[in-house]
Amino acid sequence: MSGADPRARTRAWEGARGVARRGAAAAGRRLVVVLGGPRRTRVIVVLACVLALSSADTATVGASAIELRRGLGIDNTDIGLLVAVTSVVGAVFSLPFGALADRIRRTFLLGVAVLTWAAAMIWSATATSFGQLLEARVFLGAVTAAAGPAVASLVGDYFASGERGRVYSYVLTGELLGAGVGFTVTGDVAALSWRLAFVILAIPALVVAWLVFALPEPRRGGQEALVPDAPAGAGSEPPPPRPAEAAPGPDGSAPTGVTDAQQLALDRHVAPDLRLARRAWPGMRFMAAVRYVLRVRTNLALVVSGACGYYFLAGVQTFGVEFVRDQYAVGQVLANFLLLVVGAGAVLGVVGAGPLGDALLRRGYLRGRVMVAAVSATLAVGLLVPALVTHSAFTALPYIVVAAGALSAQNPPIDAARLDIMPAWLWGRAEGVRTFLRTGAQALAPLLFGAVSDYIFGGGHTGLRWTFVVMLVPLAASAFILYRAAGSYPADVATAAVAQLQADEAAAGRERPRR
Question: Which whole number is the average pLDDT over 381-410?
């Protein structure tokens, strides 16, 4: 080499870094424009990061399965138990955290949970036995339970109802990106040391906790939603219309909490369940709130359907890397890369489904959000069958990518729809109940996947393959339940609207809601 070579390499490296910095800055500016301004971008990105931490943890356990088995002398059932314990404890604690999310400052609650989560990850990394690691996972499950109720309640209050599907698409993208990090980055690190993989996850948690503490607490009821910033050069244009939640109330004196979907149901004179509506009032106690939430037929259907979908997804997160590696005869690094490609398909599904549900609602199709989820669930089941049968990665990849997109596409419209069938003061508790039931299914999934693989189908690659095939049954059930939910959805939206209007009238001093 000549003497000029080191300087040339330095200049080339600095040039590449400059291009990368400019590209990142341009992407950041574009993201701010797409999300509607710096304030909205900050909220969406931080909430997405919170969900990313939880999914990255679950995926890291799955990607570290081989190293954990070697290091601690455990089997597939024990790996499933590690994930299951986190989910079970999270399910139990989601109920009190849901109640807290309806009563105290949610940004403080979420910030403390994320900070404690980082400590739990460090504890996991220092475990010297399976029992110690199991204890750390119990503690981890308790603190992660705050995420679901707090995030759902904050999304409802930060953003107008007509765009919540789109916002959920962005927020839930964090969940998928976190799973991708768990499968690829920390999964590759786990090949060197599973302890280091857990430590790496704890570092960004500290940053996320600080960002959560810095978020402003929104006013409850969605009456002061963050309006998108006007485009550059639009200073002379009139301000954007106020969201539906901020429309004048019945007496013209105060804004109401009625969402776009609820207003559409009222305009079309959809018959509500008046007896159920009279049971809802802002000061209702915890058990009364739980009974109300479970009496809403659409909510129960969405919870059960979501539980079936997350059940299958939890199994994929835990055993997906091992299944891909053995089924398609690829190495660990290539298996992680293939799952990253699949994750990209899932991201596209999430990003597209929320805006589609919102667009259908704007066009007057009240059931649009639920139907988007139902059709997506049906496509996912149909596409996964050929992917599980073939042994060719090249043949299976298109099916799996599209199926992943369809599977993940259910979540944004469903999450937005659930806010429309509940009065605003129940968002936290309703999400707590949903998290309790859904997380129960997630808790069972890794344990059942591992146990069925080991004890029914003989373990190993063949056991995992047939386990995945059998577990398509609950996924198909989720699609059927969603079609049923589409039938009850309009009436439940109208019922929530009546309950909200009763609360607005009571706040104006005209009538006190009854239990």
Answer: 85
Question: Token digits for 437?
Answer: 């039931």
CA 307 to chain CA mean position, Å: 12
Q: How far apart are CA 467 and CA 459, in angstroms?
A: 10
- The neighbouring-strand residues paired with 248 are 255
Cα distance between residue 358 and residue 372, in whole Å:
10
First to last CA, the chain: 84
Domain ranges of the chain: 33-222+287-505
Are 239 and 230 in contact by the 8 Å Cβ rule? The answer is yes
Residue partners of 501: CB distance under 8 A and separation at least 6: 250, 256, 258
pLDDT in tens, 420-430: 999 888 888 88
Q: What count of residues does the chain have?
A: 515
Task: Indicate the SS3 state at residue 328.
Answer: coil
Residue type, 240: P
Task: Tell the CATH topology of 33-222+287-505.
Answer: Growth Hormone; Chain: A; (1.20.1250)
Asked if 31 and 42 count as a contact pair (C-beta separation under 8 A), the reply is no
b/e code 20-54 from CB counts within 10 Å (16+ = b): eeeeeeeeeeeebeebbeebbbbbbbbbbbbbbbb
What are the helix (H) ranges across 126-184? Answer: 130-144, 147-158, 164-183
List, for residues 140-155, the tens digit of each pLDDT value. 777 778 888 899 889 9
pTM confidence score: 0.76
**Residue (of 162, 145, 146) closest to 154 by Cα position:** 146
Percent pLDDT > 90 in the chain is 21
Contact 449, 471 (CB under 8 A): yes
